[in-house]
Fold this sequence. Notes:
11 helices, Rossmann fold, BirA Bifunctional Protein, domain 2, 9-stranded mixed beta sheet, 5-stranded mixed beta sheet, elongated, 2 domains, alpha+beta, 29% strand
Amino acid sequence: MKYTKSGITTTKNTPKDAEVISHKLMIRSGMIKKLASGLYTWMPLGLRVLKKIENIIRIEMNKVEALEILMPAIQPSELWKESERWEKYGPELLRITDRHDREFCFGPTHEEIITDIARKDIKSYKQLPVIYYQIQTKFRDEIRPRFGVMRAREFLMKDAYSFHENEECLDKTYQTIFEAYKNCFDKIGFEYKVVNADNGQIGGSESHEFHVIAENGEDELIFSDSSDYAINSELFTEPPKEGDDCPDGAGKVKIKRGIEVGHIFKLGKNYSESMNASISNKENKNVKMTMGCYGIGVSRIAAAAIEQSNDEKGIIWPKSISPFEISIISIGYTKNNIIKNYTDSIYKELKDKNVEVLLDDRDISPGNMFSDSDLIGIPLRITIGKQFLENYNFELKDRKNSKTYTISENNNTEKPTKEAMDNVFNLINR
């Protein structure tokens, strides 16, 4: 894609309400635009990131044979009253009324809807276990939206729900999705912790949170330096301090901040009992289904990635979710035909190999090109300029470690040689 056709609009201005680095950089890089408090438009650059996150999640959910559906964002109050959450949920639930004075809400979560589907479609244990999932817009009327898309009112979430004959069956699925979530975050390239957590308003008997380690995380994580022990500090009346003996008896306490990007729950029969979601079991008895619930904050992952990987110049994207794999800065592109023709040839070869490439074809100063490139944070950058005209070389730079590779064309300015392109592809695919 050429920069002039990309819809990317960077800015040097930092919004006054931006408290954390991800919010600042997402606005400055043109990923998002604020519409109102807690409401953001995802622009082309940001949407490319979201779609890559979605793809990673879909692959892992499909691997465990989860069935993708899409439920309505607007939900009738009757189901929420049936589950007894209409009043219990609190002011975060955005309640609305249609022209016939019927009450609805903009869904913050979808337990009621999926339970209604299950009780209508599932009649026998032979149909279980089953996992449904969706990637859907949610809305929670936060009292104080902050931190950009990390604590927005409207956000994109992957939520999944499983149905079982009994707790034993739930345990197996819970562990399966536990591993699927780890696969998601491993593929993205996060440093993260899985911690025991509070069930909150969702309810249930057991839950785990997946936290990306970041200085601006809202949660304090307590974990062992020598075991798998990890827990959210909110579960302690008096949390231990850094360096204390670990509560599990193994090693010393470490404390870091985390951004919650995933949460899984064993719901048990909370919803199936209140909403009468029953099946016929192996003994031909009528029993309530056992449920699990599994959420991932899709839009929050984008912000968490920035919080974990950035520098004074801008974003440093993990390769897995970067909006582009490589960028090209062509100094003199609009003024020098030799540079333009060579640049166009490299650009075409990359596109022909299905490499996602961004070519900066703007007629602006090199300094502004480099500044925008660092701000956007694409993992690899080719620079073609004066050095190419003088020495038949161009540079390829790694955004993360700032390492620069010189690619020699051996007295060639016509089009890239196979050797030169092989070097580029090797660096892209490493």
